[in-house]
Give the backbone structure.
Amino acid sequence: SLVCSLQGDADAAERCARQGIAISQRLRSDFVESVGLMRLGHPFQLRGDHPWDAASPHRRQAITCYERAIEQVQAFRVIRTQVEPLWGLCRAYGYGGDLVSAERYAVKAVEIAQGAGDEWIADLVRVTMGATYALHSRSEQAQEWLTEAVEGFRRVGDPFGRSVARLWLALDAWNRGEITTSLVYMSELLPL
């Protein structure tokens, strides 16, 4: 489901997440259900013409999934499992314009991920927060988050993640009118 979401295939991602939730109900496993719920939030964020709009019903559905997932996993005292839904909340609120809430969720998710030794998901959160700032013309903050994500993805050997972070850096530079800088980011991105 997560891979389908990262590829932008909302239908496949939703189908996989719902299958996971169905399995959890047969197993009577709240933990498996919470994973299904967090994974169901991602395709909701890909739906509709304006999925980041605060009034979007898909955005509200995603937030509900993430909040329910966090609530359910707290009973298991495996704090690491909260990172993915916190990342989703960061996206939902940040892309929708609530930068304060987005950063609060991002900081918490990165702290938990780093404490668990999971650099990769921490960098996904960093890209989301950097993209949030880029979307809302906060270039200095965008550059900080995205540059850190590029380095983190380099350390874990993820060229896709580095590409995504560089693409946001290029877009942010372009929007600031720094065409040469944007093209430098693109020249680093394309070989990846």
About this structure: The chain is about 80% helix and 0% strand. Residues 13 and 81 are 19 Å apart (CA to CA). The first helix runs from residue 2 to 6. The chain has a mean pLDDT of 94.
